[in-house]
Specification:
CATH superfamily: HUPs
Order of helices and strands: HHEEHEEHHEHEHE
CATH class: Alpha Beta
Strand content: 15-25%
Number of strands: 7
Radius of gyration: 17 Å
Number of helices: 7
Number of domains: 1
Shape: globular
Distance between the termini: 22 Å
């Protein structure tokens, strides 16, 4: 995937710049039915770039391999006081399985689905201190979905609560992700340290040449 990206933008140094954690050793599979790309998205310029890179790689992979490539954005509301988290477990009505963007909201190990219109209704019955993080998260998720529409590919968004590194690892495991994209430029970034060396998939960051 990175070789194709290098060729597309005329670079030959992306692999050493972008691979922050290598792909773990696993049994080779001769048949690849789908590729899952996860992006840690928080609406920052760097995470925006990471999302664009993921969509670009997904597009190139679809053209070259004619396989399904799914891009998913994850936004984590970091909250160290679990008692202050909104209890979303009562809003568990499933949504149809659509190719269009879907927001998945989870609290701890519960993963109910939440649409934008439903989230507005939820805020009416939550404490005021819980509403602001949800409203901000709603804006960020919708921004990611708007960016996804430009690429017209399969896209899903997740909203989770808790420790960022922990929740990213959970989503990567649940979605059987092949790559996690972060808005980081160095293996020394604190987020890379938090993910640890036993992360279940390769982690890619933003190449330094992106600023050139």
């Amino acid at each position: 995937m990175l070789v194709r990206l290098q060729s597309a933008i005329g670079r030959d140094d992306l692999i050493e710049q972008m691979v922050l954690l290598p792909e773990p050793k696993k049994a080779l599979s001769l048949e690849v039915k789908a590729v899952n790309l996860i992006v840690a998205y928080d609406a920052s310029p760097n995470s925006h770039t990471a999302l664009d890179l993921a969509f670009c790689i997904a597009h190139q992979t679809r053209l070259a391999k004619n396989i399904q490539v799914n891009v998913q954005a994850v936004y984590v509301v970091e909250n160290h006081d679990h008692n202050q988290l909104p209890d979303l477990s009562i809003f568990t009505k499933p949504l149809p399985n659509l190719e269009s963007p879907v927001s998945t909201v989870s609290r701890r190990d519960k993963t109910p689905l939440l649409t934008q219109s439903k989230s507005r209704g939820i805020t009416q019955c939550l404490p005021e201190k819980s509403i602001i993080p949800l409203q901000e998260a709603d804006k960020i998720i919708w921004q990611a979905r708007s960016l996804a529409e430009e690429w017209q590919g399969s896209f899903k968004s997740h909203l989770r609560f808790g420790c960022v590194a922990t929740e990213l690892k959970k989503v990567v495991g649940l979605e059987a992700a092949d790559i996690l994209f972060l808005g980081c430029k160095s293996v020394n970034d604190s987020m890379i340290q938090a993910l640890g060396s036993d992360f279940p998939c390769a982690v890619l960051g933003i190449p330094n040449c992106i600023d050139q």
